[in-house]
Amino acid sequence: MKNRARMLFIGVPAVLVAGLLLSGCKPEPELTQASAQAMIQAKYDQTPPVGINVVVDELGFREGYTAKYWDRIKVYPNQFWADFKLTPEGKKAFKLPNGGDVIEWHPENAGDTHYTIILVTVGANHLKAEYVQEPESEVLPGASTAKGAFFRETQVMDGFPNTVQKIASTPVNKLSVKRHADFVLEGETWKLKSIE
Q1: How does residue 17 score in pLDDT terms, banded at 50, 70 and 90?
Q2: Which residues, listed in sequence order, are joined to residue 143 by a DSSP beta bridge?
Q3: Are 173 and 70 in contact (CB under 8 A)?
Q4: Cα–Cα distance between 6 and 19 in angstroms, integer?
C-alpha cells in the first residue's frame, strides 16, 4: 500500500509535467524585482540627462545669496520686491527657465514666506530607479501577458555643489516621486513598455 501511494505521489506530478512538455506549453519566464529595476534603470541611462528643476523658496534663496550665486541689482519702492542677477559662480550652478540671468523676487507682501521661483541646474544626471516593488500581473490593452510594478524615481544630486544640493533639499522640492512601470512578455522575454 505504501508503494502504491508513493507511486501516485511521484507519478501524478510527473505525468502533468510530461503533458505540459509534450503539448508545447512552457512556463512563463519570471520577472523579478531585480530584472524590473534593471530594465527601468537601463531606460533612464539611455535617456539624455537633463538639468533638475529646483523650486527655490525664501530659505533656499537666502542660501544662494549667501553663496554669492546672485547679487541684488534693484530694490522696488515697496521695499520687498527686488531683482537679482546671476553671478558668474551662479551661472555655473543654475540657469533661468526663460534663458535670462535676472531673477525677479516679487512676493505678494513683505511677510510672504510661501513665494517661490524655479531655477534649473546647469549640471545634469540620469534619474535613478529605487525601491522597485514585486511585479504583479495586470491587464494591458494589446498585451496577452503583462505585469506592473511601482517604484521610486529619484533625482540624483551626485556631483552638484553642496549649496545647490542644500537649496534643492528644502521641503518645497520633491527629489523623489512614486512611478509605475508596465512590462509585457514578448516571446520569452520581458520588456519595459512604459513608465507613468
Answers
A1: very low
A2: 140
A3: no
A4: 20
